[in-house]
Amino acid sequence: MGDLPRLIVSGILTGGVYGLLAMGLSLQYGVARVLNIAHGEFAMMGAMLASSLYVALGINPLVAAAISGPLLFALGFVLQATLFRGLKARAPAAAAFEGNALLAAFGILYVISYLALLRWGTLPTTVLYLNYVVTFAGMSLRLNRIVAFAIAVAMGVAVYLFLARSRLGRAIRATAEDPATAGLMGVNVNIILAFCFGLGALLAGVAGSLTAMSSQISTSIGFRNTLIALIVVTLGGLGSVPGSFIAGIIIGIVTSLVTSLWEPVLVVPVYYAILMVLLLARPAGILGKK
Amino acid sequence: MKKVDITRLFAHRKLLWVGFLVAILIFLAAFPLYGNAYYIRLLFYMFMYATLSMSWAMFSGATGYMSLAPAAFFGAGMYTMAFLQEALPFPVIIVIGGLVSFGFALLVGLVTLRLRGIYFTIFTFGLVMFVSEVVAYTESHLFHAIGRHILPLDSKTLFYAMLVVAVATIVAIYFIRRSRLGLAMQSIGGNEEAAEHMGVNTTRIKVLTFAISAVFMGAAGVIMAPNLIYIDPRIAFSPAYSFMPILMSVFGGTTQLYGPVVGAAIFAYLERTLREQLPEYFMLTFGILLVLVILFMPHGLEGLVSRLQNKLRAVIWKSRKGGETEQHANT
Q1: A279 CB near a chain B CB, below 8 Å?
Q2: In the predicted model, what is the mean pLDDT of chain A?
Q3: Which of A12, B188, B302, B325 is most buried as measured by Cβ atoms within 10 A of its Cβ?
Q4: Opening angle at CA B206, ends B202 and B212, nearest 5
Q5: Which residues of B4-15 are buried (b: 16+ CB within 10 A; e: fewer)?
Q6: Smallest Cα–Cα separation from A28: which of A290, A244, A186?
Q7: In this structure, is the dihedral angle defined by the CA atoms of residues A143, A145, A149 and A155, taken in order, positive or negative?
């Protein structure tokens, strides 16, 4: 059990990246009302692009994130500005839109994952970067995980401050609250929605690139990433940014402990046990509003 | 000269429909007597997908609660067959498979359906993976081997079994849709809050109908297992069994009973044909199709058919009106 503190710290480090991933999903659902179940596929693309850029040009995953991030932002922006905007215009009611948007995202999940399969195949790869062991308070940790955690938290804080303090952030919060009134106040709602969707895709992509620094990746990691993001978002409360990070860290610790001390195949069943207890006891999440 | 009035044909429409359906049923039931093996197998898949799509559309189409987990209940049926194949006769296992899925869906519903639809969808998203990993863990720890062989059955037996399940599903869903249960489901889909105020116990209706929809999926899974001969958690709980019924229902339309059946027939054919010729591209194409259908045909084929019907009615109405004015002119 002398390993326990190290496993917990390692879980916290992974959890920061989960938090960043979940924040993107939370933003997309909270503002654009699209439960983007293809979210993990954007993380997969971030990771696989990092691998491609490393192989082709020798670019490290941190620089790769700065290249793939804007690309994924553009993809998310275009998807919202064409597909989801069109669905919204045609839907008779808000509930019908959410249902149709979900099914469209389900289609996109298949499109992205099979395109990735055609391009990259099924073989797992690694792009280890900054893979040195550093000793911190008697625990040996890998530098790449620490760097990934620091970047994830920094980006999370930046996005939080952006939403809370900037003019654009205020417009986003107004749109999330009441799109019709925000429109009347002079907010270009369609641009805001597309921007949020793109930002969500970017955050997923960066989370994917950060994962690529320290873990094995493949084209099939998308599904598990979506699952993690969904569970973190439910645990943290839909639409709560600090909640996403706290929940991300909890799920990170749980994942690390179950994988190392018990059985890797039981990670998903343990997620489901958490989800079940949560939905029965506190469906609004640990920090969510009723 | 006696004028043929086409509109009178519509007076006996119900009778015509029943006759038409009985004719199709006889054609299908007699098919193994003269059809070749390839088409018997194709029809088997059509029945299977029709069952899955109708069950999905019955619940998710009517209530708007999107389930992403038909494969979980379908796979549960397959594993029921794997465990009971030597202990019980085949028809009994089909019933038990339905009941196993019923119980499983009941549990899922009790946990999630008290809440808003979003939590239900989130829960069903990973449900297939959850069940598949639990089964994998159980198999490796209790039986020390993952995967099971299923004794193969005669393809005609499987054909008739799947036909019976598909017909039973159609009949059951037809009556459910016309019952209080069906109306309650539709009122939940229309406006859940209003339904609740009108005295509909929405949670009970949702849990019950979700569990009923899983019965058919489980029964179809039992029959699918011998067709595969060997199953393991990866094969039995393949995400494609969730994706295909949803695509088929959305393509056919979910407000009428025939929508998912027609969608299933078309895509079962496409899947069987393309799987051999373009193995990498067909799922990609199906994903693109799903997105396009939702965007441009949100009511599916049914939407097109009802638009066409309206146009036809307008034409008939116009011609009748034209005839009447002519008569007036003659007198």
Answers
A1: yes
A2: 90
A3: B188
A4: 145
A5: eeeeeeeeeeee
A6: A244
A7: positive
Return the structure tokens found at B165: 């399940």
- Report the relative pairing of strands B230-231 and A139-142 from DSSP bridges: unpaired
- Interface predicted TM-score (ipTM): 0.91
Mean pLDDT of chain B: 89
Please, which residues 64-103 of chain A have a Cβ atom closer than 8 Å to chain B?
83, 86-87, 90-91, 95-96, 98-100, 102-103
Residue A28: which residues within 8 A CB-CB, separation 6 or more? A34, A35, A36, A39, A196, A197, A200
- Residues 6 or more apart whose Cβ sits within 8 Å of residue B245: B49, B52, B53, B55, B56, B70, B260, B264
Summarised one tens digit per residue, pLDDT across range B64-73 is 999 999 999 9
Instruction: List CB contacts of B201: < 8 A, sequence separation 6 or more.
Output: none
- Integer Cα distance of A83 and B2 in angstroms: 55
* DSSP notation for B291-308: HHHHHH-TTHHHHHHHHH
Dist CA A179 CA A189 (whole Å) = 7
Distance from CA of B86 to the nearest CA of A (A): 29
Q: B38 near B183, Cβ under 8 Å? A: no
Domain ranges of chain A: 21-222
Nearest to B138 by CA among B24, B64, B263, B233: B233
> Taking CB atoms and an 8 Å limit, are A95 and B117 in contact across chains?
yes
Which residue in B133, B137, B287 is closest to A107 by CB distance? Answer: B287
Distance between CA B46 and CA B68 in Å, rounded?
20
pTM: 0.91
Asked whether the beta carbons of residue A107 and residue B112 sit closer than 8 angstroms, the reply is: no
Walk along chain A (290 residues) and give the pLDDT tens digit of each residue: 468 888 999 999 999 999 999 999 999 998 999 999 999 999 999 999 999 999 999 888 999 999 999 999 999 999 999 999 999 998 888 888 999 999 999 999 999 999 999 999 889 988 888 888 888 777 888 898 999 999 999 999 999 999 999 999 999 999 998 988 999 998 999 999 999 999 999 999 999 999 999 889 999 999 999 999 999 999 988 777 788 889 999 999 999 999 988 888 889 999 999 999 888 887 777 665 54
